Amino acid sequence: MISILLGAPGVGKGTQAALAAERHGWTHLSTGDLLREEVSAGSALGQEAKAFMDRGDLVPDQVMVSMVAERIAALPKDSVLLLDGFPRSLPQARALEAAAPSGSLGLALYFTASDEVLTARLLGRGRKDDTLEVIQHRLAVYRETTEPLVAFYRDRGLLREIESDREVDAIQEDVLGAVSAVLERPEPA
Ligand code: AP5
Ligand code: MG
Fold first, then answer.
1. Is the minimum distance from the CB of 67 to ligand 1 under 6 angstroms?
2. What whole-number distance in Å separates Cα of residue 17 and Cα of residue 34?
3. Using one digit for the tens of pLDDT, what is the confidence trace for 8-57?
4. Which residue in 2, 80, 104, 163 has a CA-CA distance of 20 to 30 Å to 27?
5. Which ligand is nearest to the CA of 31?
6. How many CA atoms lie within 13 Å of 83's alpha carbon, on the beta-carbon side?
């Protein structure tokens, strides 16, 4: 089963996915982490992606889609995949529907918090793209290009909203509840 983690920069997608993966043996795939590994390794892909990331712009869709599609193809059949930071645009969402095995897309967890909370968290984290100027640009890109996915997944009946200005463990309980509900659903006959 594939669960998408959707929400603005700093909302806690990575924090929640890493915790759930550790506790339940699920697979956490963060496209931001994969890109940062490529940048540190100095690969051709990393060199191409770096300028986009430093500015807080999205890396081109075709790069991201092939990165994710090859990993989905390699997944064992019964795994639970937490897809953190992908899709982030309508073309990516459509490509995911094409790449995912039929019926495997089970859930879109939509994490929410105010811009003030997001900005304070990111400034406190201190990654290279966590300067005020880049954070504001990432938030603007999120509103414009990624937020339309909320309606996209709501239309498909996959969206579960999780208020995320709360303690990490309280949010994690909601994540576990939402994923478990999908896993426990009887297979369609
Ligand atoms: P990415 O790494 O995905 O960054 P992001 O979307 O900006 O999101 P963050 O990782 O900053 O936030 P998060 O929601 O994971 O929050 P976190 O758990 O860290 O992407 C980076 C760049 O890569 C993009 O800008 C783009 O260039 C490129 N990219 C990646 N995917 C792409 C794609 N699909 N298409 C195109 N380009 C792509 O938490 C943030 C902080 O808050 C932490 O310090 C954490 O400890 C703290 N925190 C978390 N939860 C709580 C809580 N409940 N209470 C208090 N503090 C908390
Ligand atoms: Mg993250």
1. no
2. 14
3. 999 999 999 999 999 999 999 999 999 999 999 999 999 999 999 999 99
4. 163
5. 1
6. 26
- pTM reported for the whole predicted model: 0.97
What is the domain-level CATH number for residue 83?
3.40.50.300
Residue 160 contacts residue 181 (beta carbons within 8 Å):
no
Asked whether residue 170 is assigned to any structural domain, the reply reads: yes
* Cβ 3 vs Cβ 83: under 8 Å: yes
> Residue 29's CB: how many other CB atoms inside 10 A?
21
Contact 32, 85 (CB under 8 A): yes
106 ligand 1 Cβ < 6 A: no
Domain hosting 75: range is 2-181
Contact assessment for residue 132 and residue 119, using Cβ atoms and an 8 Å cutoff: yes
Looking from the CA of residue 164, the nearest atom of ligand 1 is: 53
Q: Which strands sit side by side in the sheet containing 105-112, from one edge to the other? A: 27-30, 81-84, 2-7, 105-112, 159-163
- State how many domains the chain has: 1
DSSP-H helix ranges across 56-167: 61-73, 90-99, 115-125, 132-141, 148-155
CA-based Rg of the chain, rounded to a whole angstrom? 16
CB 21 within 8 Å of CB 101: no
